[in-house]
């Protein structure tokens, strides 16, 4: 089964090399031909050059919206299964094989991978991590650091909602869940192995910003407004 790995990237020259190297290693055991796509959101560093040097097809998306960036990659993908990773997310060697195995079941329409973080610089951020682990399963919230689904299903539900500026990963997982139930399918949540994503944004944000910008109610009330998320797009830590 062919996988299309899609990574949105903006000024990611620091972490992207290791991210891509780990993905290439994880792809080695798979028999089917797969592809690696990086969607560059007008980076001004060496993101494009690094991605090309590590075997990725590099596309450009000028719109500052994470859903639009992911959708650009999906439109150009040739694989039966779309796998979305963030540019600062490290993939363990067995993960893509596990995803490939889960997707061999025709009733499995997609899913997500459990996320862990590197070491937080601020001790109180551990409470945020604990809160996410508690509320995530209750409200069926799965992070976009690692999500996957069949391309035909992705197209059937309209892909990521480009009206949403933050929380597009939660929204699409809810819609995938609904589609699966309506069509006799299911989603697979992979808890082992986990992906490791960087805590860099949170380590540089104030306690107030962290409490507000990661609160589910605040996100749901503002996820279709661009202004509250300007620092997430333009001022984010790289």
Topology diagram in text:
Elements: E1 3-9, H1 16-27, E2 35-40, H2 47-53, E3 57-60, H3 66-76, E4 81-85, E5 89-90, H4 95-102, E6 108-117, H5 125-138, E7 146-150, H6 151-156, H7 168-182, E8 186-197, H8 200-204, H9 207-213, H10 216-222, H11 230-233
Parallel strand pairs: 1-2, 1-4, 2-3, 6-8
Antiparallel strand pairs: 4-7, 5-8, 6-7
Q: Work out the radius of gyration.
A: 17 Å
Main sheet characteristics? 8 strands, mixed
Unreliable stretches, pLDDT < 50, 5 or more residues? none
Order of helices and strands: EHEHEHEEHEHEHHEHHHH
Question: How many separate helices?
Answer: 11
N/C terminus separation = 34 Å
The total domain count is 1
* Strand portion: 15-25%
What is the assigned CATH homologous superfamily? Spore Coat Polysaccharide Biosynthesis Protein SpsA, Chain A
CATH topology: Spore Coat Polysaccharide Biosynthesis Protein SpsA, Chain A
Structure classification: alpha/beta
Say how many strands there are: 8
Assigned CATH class: Alpha Beta
Provide a short characterization of the protein structure.
With 238 residues, the chain is α/β, with parallel strands linked by helices. The protein has helices at residues 16-27, 47-53, 66-76, 95-102, 125-138, 151-156, 168-182, 200-204, 207-213, 216-222, 230-233; strands at residues 3-9, 35-40, 57-60, 81-85, 89-90, 108-117, 146-150, 186-197.
Entry keywords:
single chain; 238 residues; alpha/beta; Spore Coat Polysaccharide Biosynthesis Protein SpsA, Chain A; eight-stranded mixed β-sheet; 21% strand; globular
